[in-house]
C-alpha cells in the first residue's frame, strides 16, 4: 500500500484492508507513537467536515506528524479561481500525503492522477468516503470477532447514503447476509444490489424497523434527510418510523451492536446511548486508529 | 441483381484509396461525423444516409478519401454505431473489411451525465469504462456514475 492513493474502497483488495484493520488494532493498544515525526500531512477540506478533519488531524498529531491545510474553501486560493489541478500540484510540493474532502464527485480520483504524493479521499461529494468504510469494518470485526457469516441491517436513507453503498460493496467480500430497512422512496439502488447478487449473497428488504431487530448482529442506522423527499408530506409520514429507541432492543440478539456514522439528529433516541448495544461513539473513536493505520501503511512506516 | 451490383459499385468501390464506413444506422451518420471530427478534415468526404440496405432496411455510409484510421479512433464510433463495418480500400481493392468493436474504455468525447462530476467543472478529459456493451452503459472513471446511450452528449 506504500505510496498508493485510496480514493475508492475498491482500490484496495480484501487482504489489504484486513491488513489495515490489523495495524489499527496495534494503534488502538498504543495510539501515541512518534513515527510520523518526519512527515507533513496536508488536510485540504474544500467543504467543511469538522468531524472527519479532526479525526485525521488527531491521528496525525498523536503520531507526531505535522499538519498543513485548510478547513473550508473560502480560506484558500480556490476562491481566487485556482483550478483543482494547480491547488493539488502545489500542495503536493509541500507535503508527503494529502487528505482531501471535496464537494464534487470524482475530484479525489482526479487529484490522485495529478498529484506526486498519495491522496486519501475523505469524501468526494456523494461518491466515496473509504475511511468511513474501513472504520465501520473495524468496528464490526471488533464487536463481533469476525466479519463473515454476520447478519447486518442498514436502516434509513439507503438510496443516497454513500456510506451505506460503500459498506455494502466492501461487505460483499465477506459472507454476510444483508437486511435493508427504508421507506420505499429511499430503497437501495439496483446498481448496489447487483454487487450482492454477483457475490451470490442474500439480501432482504423491509419497511418496518422493529421486524428486523431480532434477526441481526449489526444494526447500522443512518439519517433520513428532509430534502431527499420530493413530497414533504411523505417525509412527515415516514420520519418517525425509523427512529430507534431503547425499548425496541428488548428482543435483540445478545451480541447486537448499533452503529451510526454520525452526526445523529434524532434517529437514535438518547435513551439508547447508555445501553450495551450502543457502539457509535466508540465507532467514531475507532476512526482515529484506522486512519493512523492507513496513513502509516501509505507512508511506509508500518 | 444487375442494379444491386451497380449500386455497390457506386457506393463502395468508387474510392481509389481510403476508408469506407458502412452500415451506419441512418440516424447516427452525423454523430459519427462529429465523433471522428470529419468536419475538420481537408480530405474528400462523401456520405449518404437513408440508403436502402438489405440487412438493416435503411443505412448510412461515409467514404473518406486517402484516410486510414487508427483502430482506436474508429472503434469510438461503435458507441453510436455498433453495427458499422469498416472497409479499407487501396488501389480500388478492398484490403480489409471488418465490423467495428465496442472499446473497453471511452475517452474524451462523451460528457458525464452527473452535473456534480468533477469533469463538468474542471478542465478534465472524460473517461469511461464500458460496463454493458449491449445496453451501452458507461461508468465514469471519476465520479463512478453510469451514463447510458439515451443520455449521450458529445463533446
Describe this structure in a few short sentences:
With 302 residues, chain A is of the alpha/beta class. Chain A has helices spanning 14-29, 50-62, 84-94, 107-114, 130-144, 162-171, 190-198, 209-212, 232-238, 280-299; strands at 40-45, 66-70, 97-102, 119-124, 151-155, 177-181, 203-206, 218-221, 257-259. Chain A folds into two domains: 31-128, Rossmann fold, CATH 3.40.50; 131-284, Aspartate/ornithine carbamoyltransferase (Rossmann fold, 3-Layer(aba) Sandwich).
From the N-terminal CA to the C-terminal CA of chain B, the straight-line distance is 43 Å
Identify the CATH class of the largest domain in chain A. Alpha Beta
Order of helices and strands of chain A: HEHEHEHEHEHEHEHEHEH
**Shape descriptor of chain B:** elongated
- pLDDT average of chain A, as an integer? 94
Oligomerization: heterodimer
Along the chain, the helix and strand elements of chain B come as: HEHEEHEEEEEE
Structural class of chain A: alpha/beta
Helix count of chain A, per DSSP? 10
CATH topology of the largest domain in chain A: Rossmann fold
Task: Give the amount of beta strand of chain A, in percent.
Answer: 5-15%
CATH class of the largest domain in chain B: Alpha Beta
